[in-house]
Design brief:
Elements lengths: L4 E6 L4 H15 L5 E5 L9 H12 L4 E5 L6 H11 L4 E5 L3 E3 L2 H11 L5 E3 L2 E8 H7 L12 H13 L5 E2 L4 E3 L18 H11 E8 L7 E3 L10 H7 L4
Length: about 250
C-alpha cells in the first residue's frame, strides 16, 4: 500500500468541538498513521497558554502525532506548506479540522490512493485533498504572500493547470463530512465567511488580472498572472533527493 501522512491545521477555538473528535476518529480507524498537526496562533492576541497545555496533553496520549505550534498567527498557505514538508511520507492527506470522519472513509481513500499518482481533491473540496511533495515543488508551494486564510486553493489550482494543462481531479469518497464551522479567529478582517479580506484583495487586485487569453481555474472569469511567483523553500528538492546520503 502506498504510504501517506495526514496533515491537519487547527487553532484554539476549534479544539473541543472539532479537533478532539477528529483526532479520535482517525486514530480509532488508523492508529499507526502519522499525523502532522499545525497549530496556528491567534491574530493580534497572545497565545492561550491553557490551550497550549491542553492540546499537547491530549496529543501525548497518541502515538505518531507530531505538533508544530506557531505563537503568532500564520497564513493557511504556510501551515499547509510546512505541514506537507514536515511529513515523513511523500504523499499527504491534508485535512481541515472541522470534519467528521467515519470508519469506512480510510478504506475507500486508500483504495483510491493506490490507483492515483498525483494530487486529487475529495468530493470537489480543498477541505480534504491529497498531494505529494514533488508535485508541490513542481507547481510551486502555496503562496505565503496570502497572509490570511482563503484563495490559496484557487491560486494553486490556477498554477497547477498552467503547469500541467489539466485540472486537479476530484474523487468521490463517502464517510467524510465537511461541517464548515463558522468558528474563526476574531483578530483578522473577514471577507467571505471565515476567509480573510486581505487574501481576496491580494489575489483579485494584485496577483491576477482579467484576460481573455488566460484560464479560469476556480475563479469566476479568465485571468492571467499580473505578478511573478517567488521561489519558496528553494532547497527542498535538493533535500529530498539527497537525504539518504547523510
Amino acid at each position: 500500500m502506498r504510504k501517506y501522512s495526514v496533515v491537519i491545521t487547527t487553532f484554539d477555538r476549534r479544539f473541543e468541538d472539532h479537533f478532539v473528535p477528529l483526532i479520535a476518529s482517525i486514530k480509532r480507524s488508523r492508529p499507526h498513521v502519522e499525523i502532522i498537526v499545525m497549530v496556528n496562533g491567534p491574530c493580534n492576541a497572545p497565545f492561550d497558554q491553557a490551550f497550549r497545555k491542553k492540546i499537547l496533553g491530549y496529543l501525548a496520549d497518541y502515538s505518531e502525532i507530531y505538533p508544530t505550534i506557531f505563537p503568532n498567527f500564520q497564513s493557511l498557505a504556510k501551515l499547509w506548506n510546512r505541514g506537507i514538508l514536515t511529513a515523513t511520507n511523500d504523499f499527504s492527506l491534508v485535512l481541515n479540522d472541522d470534519l467528521e470522519i467515519h470508519d469506512r472513509f480510510f478504506d475507500l481513500f486508500e483504495s483510491e490512493l493506490q490507483s492515483k499518482t498525483s494530487a486529487f481533491r475529495i468530493n470537489d473540496s480543498f477541505s480534504h485533498y491529497l498531494i505529494n511533495k514533488m508535485e508541490l515543488i513542481t507547481v510551486g508551494f502555496f503562496d505565503e504572500r496570502l497572509l490570511g486564510l482563503g484563495e490559496e486553493d484557487g491560486d494553486f489550482v490556477w498554477r497547477y493547470f498552467d503547469r500541467y494543462k489539466k485540472d486537479i481531479p476530484s474523487v468521490s469518497i463517502s464517510g467524510i463530512d465537511n461541517i464548515q464551522s463558522p468558528l474563526a479567529d476574531p483578530g483578522y478582517i473577514k471577507g467571505i465567511r471565515t476567509a480573510s479580506k486581505f487574501n481576496r484583495d491580494f489575489v483579485l487586485n494584485e496577483k491576477y488580472e482579467r484576460s481573455v487569453f488566460g484560464h479560469k481555474g476556480m475563479f469566476d472569469y479568465k485571468v492571467r498572472k499580473a505578478m511573478d511567483d517567488l521561489v519558496q523553500y528553494p532547497y527542498e528538492e535538493y533535500y529530498l533527493k539527497n537525504r539518504d546520503k547523510v
